[in-house]
Fold:
Amino acid sequence: MILVLMKRFLGKSQSHASGGSQPPEELVRMIQAGDTRLRNQFITDYQPYVAKVTSRFCKRYIDPSRDDEFAVALSAFNEAISQYSYESGRPFLSFSEMVIRRRLIDYIRKEQRFLQQVPYSSFDMEDEEENLMNPVDIHQAIREYELQKDMEDRKSEIMELNHVLMDFGVTFSDLVEASPKHADSRESLARVGMMLAQDSGLMRLLLGKRMLPIKELLERTGFSRKTLERNRKYIIAVAIIYNGPFPYLRDYLRFARPEEDGRMEP
Structure:
């Protein structure tokens, strides 16, 4: 249950940043008109969507950093941007999923033909002690071990964060409810949390008194007291994630960056 709530909280912290509230169809029209920078940002923002579609098609977790299927799907998503017709009236994401599925089918068929042509046993070799070994088996075993370890590490981080937040009287259920509803607000408030985490003096106040240093944050941000107090739990959670040993959870919040002049825009 804690895992589910944490995913909801972290999931709310991610957004498709391209064009704010503009629908993807409008963004694709702008890209097709020649906005190369927007294309790159659009593809980057929708990588989680591409990974989700790919995992659903392959019926297993797809790691974007390791699995060739993700690269195939990402290329197909880029292809869909170029081929999409706004006049068709079809949602872009529905169209892109169709293109992704087609390219993955082509890829799998190609891989199956290769495996039929090259016997699995042809990868066998002997080690220094003349024991028969198969590098494909070894690679797969290592990969499965790494995936399992990553999963366990993520779970461990979430349990540790839960323990820390309990000292502040905050639960994961609270975080889900406390997360700002709008993407711009989440990002701005996450920057407040990150700024707080990077200031050792403010973190001492937070961890020592178990209270958000509202007075100090009022001086350093453009937010009102009411906004800071209303989003207290969210800011505290982000600050603790950035300040503590939570690399996996920080990765989910990697969009947040403090402003260079140290002052936030509400």
The chain has a mean pLDDT of 78.
